[in-house]
Amino acid sequence: MRNTTRKVAIAGVGFVGSSCAYSLVNQSICDEIMLIDRTPARAYAQALDLSHCMDFTHTRTKIYTGSYADCGDADIIVLCAGASPKPGDTRLDMADTAYAIYKDMIPQMMASGFDGLIVAAANPVDVVTYMVWKLSGLPRERVIGTGTSIDSSRLKTLLSEYLPIDPRSVRGYVLGEHGDSQFPAWSHVTVGGKPILDILAQHPQRFSQLKLDDIAAKTRNAGWEILQRKGATYYGIANAIAHIVRSMLNDDYNITAVSAVLEGEYGEREVCAGVPAILTRRGIAELVELNLTAEERASFAFSSSVIRSAVAKLPL
């Protein structure tokens, strides 16, 4: 009988990695979760704690600790290992630290015989996605970063508070860097299928308090607002990771904004940036190229240049 066990390995089980495992368990997304951490005792404690959820979940998920050498039979590896930014730093300032972590980790994982999908969640996620793609040698469709998935969710949540409607009735994407140069593609944001720009034009008084520039700024700064108040962000990104993992394991063909290697899409090459992508069991089946306005195209080109400059400083 062919083994159909769905195994996810999580490297780095701090706030983000452990919250990701918790989301995977509660949503019954996979059969096995292997936790890897530079502090084995912490990985063991997280696995033990998570195993005590089983009596209260729909299905049993086997949770245990492992090493890079045990990644060979994993379907997906989620990369959460990283450092928190220091006061005054941007996400891009963490690129050197991320490289120091992954330049040794990824070759060890690949040496295990791993031949699955990688989801990068560590910051700066667009830079990390690119470096992991280079270090792993995997095809570009099999290395995915969480990118602007969480930013797109933040955008929808903010808009829902002004309209007010269920955030899931809002469709749209934040594009580019998961960082300071990101931007919402307002020309493609819809509410119940109706463009947000049309809604604002038709009801200027009703929605006078909804300023798109303010919403974009609040979306961009949401992570920092959380960081300043409690030290880290983890619940939202954990569910974003779980959504991406579920979409791929279930072959959902779901369209989600993720960080992907661009090879001509949106006029960019040799860079990873947040764009809508169709997620399947094989990874990214296709990148969705939105018909952007001239201003949005310029914003995307600038954001890509910011990411590319950060990558160029690394010894890849």
TrEMBL record:
The metabolic or biological pathway listed in the UniProt record of this protein is: Fermentation; pyruvate fermentation to lactate; (S)-lactate from pyruvate: step 1/1
Query: What Gene3D superfamilies is this protein classified in?
Result: Lactate dehydrogenase/glycoside hydrolase, family 4, C-terminal (3.90.110.10), NAD(P)-binding Rossmann-like Domain (3.40.50.720)
> Keyword annotations for this protein?
Cytoplasm, NAD, Oxidoreductase
Q: Which residues form the Lactate/malate dehydrogenase C-terminal domain?
A: 148-310
* Ligand binding (NAD(+)): 12-17, 37, 42, 68, 82-83, 121-123, 146
GO cellular component annotations of the record:
cytoplasm
Record CDD domains: HicDH_like (cd05291)
Reactions it catalyzes = (S)-lactate + NAD(+) = pyruvate + NADH + H(+)
Broad class of enzyme this protein falls into: oxidoreductase
Q: Note the superkingdom of the native organism.
A: Bacteria
State where substrate binds.
R91, N123, P124, V125, D126, D151, S152, S153, R154, T233
Indicate whether Transmembrane appears among the record's keywords. Answer: no
A biological process term (GO) from this entry:
lactate metabolic process
| Cell compartments where the protein resides | Cytoplasm
- The Lactate/malate dehydrogenase N-terminal domain is annotated at 7-145
Q: Name one GO molecular function term.
A: L-lactate dehydrogenase (NAD+) activity
What are its E.C. numbers? 1.1.1.27
Q: Where is the active site?
A: H178 (proton acceptor)
**Primary localization class, coarse:** cytoplasm
Family annotation (InterPro entries): L-lactate/malate_DH, L-lactate_DH, L-lactate_DH_AS, Lactate/malate_DH_C, Lactate/malate_DH_N, Lactate_DH/Glyco_Ohase_4_C, NAD(P)-bd_dom_sf
Q: Which HAMAP family match?
A: Lactate_dehydrog (MF_00488)
State what this protein does: Catalyzes the conversion of lactate to pyruvate.
Q: Which family does it belong to?
A: Belongs to the LDH/MDH superfamily. LDH family.
Q: How does it associate, per the subunit comment?
A: Homotetramer.
Q: What NCBIfam families does the entry give?
A: L-LDH-NAD, PRK00066.1
What protein does this entry describe?
A: L-lactate dehydrogenase
Q: Which organism is it from?
A: Paenibacillus curdlanolyticus YK9
Q: Per UniProt, what is the name of the gene that codes for the protein in this document?
A: ldh
